[in-house]
């Protein structure tokens, strides 16, 4: 029942937003309340999952440990992005950049986007999951082209076409995974359970081929190199709260889909096949962005490339196996929080400097004291500086790989160092120096600051002290995936 | 019944395959849309013939939905797009026709190679046709990559979806009607959104040639 509520709520919020007339306050009210209730429901479901292992509504909607983990990420980051959206869009409206009609469109689509992500996590049918992931593409296309600028339309077109091709290839792979269950006469909706029950009917070659299609398909959505080309454009052109959701949540949803299929592949052909593929995609997804970050000129693109790099780290964690899997899942939590924090902070910087070019931002720490500190904390967290959790997870992933894959591990370490150097250089350039443009000091408003502070508190807390339920969820997920 | 006749099925599968090749060679936007319309019609006929053999009316309903969406609604969206913007010729390709045909031949040969032979476990009846469906899939992806026109890219994606449907039909991987309705709804929304974006692209660059969009490169 709770799953039904969780899915119905954003849908209702979307409809309510659609009928709001000329009152920004009402839109903010709907989005903030909906986000809080979604978080509460997710918390209750997660508590039940921690207690019982899974929470099931009907056989076609069920949440396991990994699902609960991602559901919590969706609702926490969703809450921060929803609250921030109200403040951010209000400032943009006051500047005359957007009108009420655009804001209404934004909130209608935002709720649908969150709905699609929650649906993808909760469903146990691979085709429904695919439909939900495809729905995330459709609901976000207009959010990426939100400002109707030529660059935004170009980015949205690229996003739509590349992701559609990728997801159709993923759909083809999904169909191949369903054949033993179909041949066994499984009628109606096929769940993961029925796929596992018919595992003996799989042909190893078909499973390998299907997984390659899955990895290319959902890997496109996840932003793995070389299917990543849409990501820096889309993430940098979307409104900042949407960028935080795209980077902080959506990439994890795509990875979640890959992991669901990986379980089947591991059971049929052994873990080595999927691990080798994940190592390959993981290492190139670390190295390619690392070099680009070094010479990046746009801070939103910088954050987008950083997301690709972190998806690579997670893929590498699963590729190395062992402790790497636990670390990769914990990394997912830290990355989501840190990246959302950075994107939302970058939104405040953009509101003040009206530019996403690194060269145009100087002395942000003195101009925006809270945002500046938040950005520095985000930088330290995302580049894996202790005591932030990403240091622990990256260290564990590299430790897991050093014996079996020393060359890959060294290359990954080299990539991480490059990212740190590049990021550090850009962060210093933006945060310090003279405020040459004579930008007025001060934050834009409490709703552009409070969500950021909330994310910092959560990030620092889970970095210094991993809550027992979180450890339990990740341990439970590690035993399956 | 058609589905009992392997020869007719093979003939239709060859037609589907040839239509994707003709899409590659077509230069006129209206021709590309018509080719997609015919391709979709064949897919609808395949589903219809299969549905007639089943006791439930739901597969028949799905076949009718496929017909309405892919043969009537989607082409209408595209025809309206070219009418509104008076686009006669679609944008050119990255590769010339001979090279395109060579690549198509290579992709087809690849799907008939030993690499794909184990796929025969999926079906014994239509085993010779599966490589053709996979070739259609790869050639559709190649259409999206090779074409510079936004409209051709959209049709390439829909042709890819037709290729997957024909593969699923041949391999007996058809999904429950409820899921098929969901997928069709997804396609309908996709067609509408892609058409709106194609219009936006046209307004920005004055054509549907996506290579004219260079703003992101200059950043």
In short, what is this structure?
Chain A has 19 helices and 2 strands.
Spatial shape of chain B: globular
What is the CA-atom radius of gyration of chain B, in angstroms?
18 Å
**Percent of residues of chain A in beta strands?**
under 5%
Gyration radius from CA atoms of chain A, angstroms: 21 Å
Q: Count the strands of chain B?
A: 0
Instruction: For the record, give the distance between the C-alpha atoms at the N and C termini of chain B, rounded to a whole number.
Output: 59 Å
Order of strands, main sheet of chain A, comes to: 1-2
Bulk shape of chain A: globular
Task: Write down the domain tally of chain A.
Answer: 1
Please give the most extensive interface between any two protein chains, plus how many residues each contributes. Answer: A-B, 44 and 40 residues
Assembly classification: heterodimer
Calculate the mean pLDDT score of chain B and round it: 88
Tally of contiguous helical segments of chain B: 8
Can you give the helix content of chain B as a percent range?
Answer: over 70%
Structural class of chain A: mainly alpha
The ordered string of helix (H) and strand (E) elements of chain B is: HHHHHHHH
Outline the low-pLDDT stretches of chain B.
none
Strand fraction of chain B = under 5%
Helix content of chain A: over 70%
Describe the secondary structure blueprint for this structure.
The complex is a heterodimer of chains A (481) and B (219).
Chain A lengths: L1 H18 L4 H29 L2 E4 L2 E3 L1 H30 L5 H23 L3 H19 L5 H34 L8 H6 L6 H19 L7 H8 L2 H30 L1 H24 L4 H22 L2 H31 L10 H4 L1 H14 L6 H14 L3 H26 L18 H15 L3 H13 L1
Helix pairs in contact in A: 1-2, 1-4, 2-3, 3-4, 3-10, 3-13, 3-18, 3-19, 4-5, 4-10, 5-6, 5-10, 6-8, 6-9, 8-10, 9-10, 9-12, 10-11, 10-12, 10-13, 11-12, 11-17, 12-13, 12-16, 12-17, 13-15, 13-16, 13-18, 13-19, 15-17, 15-18, 16-17
Chain B lengths: L5 H20 L3 H24 L5 H28 L11 H15 L18 H17 L3 H22 L5 H29 L9 H4 L1
Helix pairs in contact in B: 1-2, 1-5, 1-6, 2-3, 2-6, 3-7, 4-5, 5-6, 6-7
């Amino acid at each position: 029942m709770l799953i039904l509520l969780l899915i119905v709520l954003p849908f209702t919020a979307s409809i309510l937003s659609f009928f709001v007339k000329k009152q920004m306050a009402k839109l903010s009210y709907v989005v903030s309340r909906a986000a809080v209730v979604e978080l509460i429901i997710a918390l209750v479901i997660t508590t039940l999952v921690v207690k019982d292992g899974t929470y099931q509504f009907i056989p076609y909607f069920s949440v396991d440990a990994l699902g609960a983990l991602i559901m919590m990420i969706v609702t926490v980051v969703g809450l921060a992005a929803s609250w921030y959206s109200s403040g951010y869009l209000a400032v943009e409206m006051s500047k005359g950049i957007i009108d009420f009609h655009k804001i209404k469109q934004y909130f209608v689509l935002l709720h649908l986007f969150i709905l699609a992500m929650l649906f993808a996590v909760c469903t146990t049918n691979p085709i429904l999951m695919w439909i939900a992931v495809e729905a995330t593409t459709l609901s976000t296309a207009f959010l990426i082209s939100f400002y109707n600028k030529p660059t935004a339309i170009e980015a949205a077109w690229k996003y739509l076409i590349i992701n559609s091709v990728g997801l159709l290839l993923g759909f083809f792979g999904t169909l191949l995974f369903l054949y033993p269950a179909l041949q066994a006469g499984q009628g109606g909706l096929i769940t993961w359970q029925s796929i596992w029950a018919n595992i003996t009917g799989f042909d190893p070659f078909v499973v390998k081929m299907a997984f390659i299609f899955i990895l290319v398909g959902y890997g496109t959505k996840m932003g793995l190199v070389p299917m990543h080309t849409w990501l820096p454009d889309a993430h940098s052109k979307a409104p900042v709260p949407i960028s935080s959701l795209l980077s902080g949540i959506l990439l994890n949803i795509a990875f979640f889909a890959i992991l669901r299929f990986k379980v089947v592949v591991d059971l049929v052909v052994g873990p080595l096949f999927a691990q080798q593929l994940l190592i390959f995609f993981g290492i190139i997804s670390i190295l390619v962005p690392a070099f680009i970050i070094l010479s990046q000129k746009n801070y939103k693109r910088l954050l987008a490339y950083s997301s690709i790099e972190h998806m690579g780290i997670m893929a590498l964690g699963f590729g190395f196996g062992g402790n790497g899997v636990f670390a990769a899942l914990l990394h997912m939590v830290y990355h989501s929080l840190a990246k959302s924090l950075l994107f939302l902070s970058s939104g405040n910087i953009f509101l003040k400097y009206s530019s996403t070019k690194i060269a145009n931002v100087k002395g942000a720490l003195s101009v925006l004291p809270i945002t500046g500190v938040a950005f520095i904390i985000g930088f330290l967290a995302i580049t894996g500086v202790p005591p932030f959790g990403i240091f622990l997870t990256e260290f564990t992933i590299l430790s897991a790989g050093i014996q079996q894959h020393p060359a890959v591990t060294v290359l990954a370490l080299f990539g991480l160092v490059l990212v740190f150097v590049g990021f550090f250089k850009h962060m210093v350039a933006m945060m310090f120096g003279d405020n040459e443009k004579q930008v007025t000091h001060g934050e834009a408003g409490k709703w552009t600051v409070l969500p950021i502070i909330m994310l910092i508190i959560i990030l620092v807390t889970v970095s210094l002290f991993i809550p027992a339920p979180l450890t339990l969820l990740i341990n439970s997920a590690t035993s399956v995936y | 019944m058609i589905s009992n006749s392997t020869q007719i099925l093979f003939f239709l599968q060859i037609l589907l395959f040839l239509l994707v090749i003709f899409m590659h060679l077509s230069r006129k936007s209206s021709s590309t849309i018509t080719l997609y319309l015919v391709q979709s019609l064949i897919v609808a006929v395949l589903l219809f013939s299969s549905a007639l053999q089943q006791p439930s009316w739901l597969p028949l309903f799905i076949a009718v939905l496929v017909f309405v969406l892919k043969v009537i609604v989607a082409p209408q969206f595209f025809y309206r797009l070219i009418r509104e913007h008076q686009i006669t010729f679609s944008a050119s390709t990255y590769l010339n026709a001979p090279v395109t045909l060579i690549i198509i031949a290579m992709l087809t040969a690849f799907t008939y190679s030993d690499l794909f032979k184990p796929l025969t476990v999926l079906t014994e009846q239509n085993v010779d046709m599966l490589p053709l469906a996979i070739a259609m899939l790869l050639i559709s992806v190649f259409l999206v990559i090779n074409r510079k026109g936004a409209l051709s890219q959209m049709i390439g994606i829909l042709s890819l979806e037709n290729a997957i449907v024909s593969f699923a039909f041949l391999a007996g991987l058809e999904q429950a009607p409820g899921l098929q309705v969901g997928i069709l709804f997804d396609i309908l929304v996709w067609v509408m959104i892609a058409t709106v974006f194609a219009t936006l692209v046209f307004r920005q660059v004055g054509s549907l040639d996506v290579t004219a969009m260079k703003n992101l490169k200059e950043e």
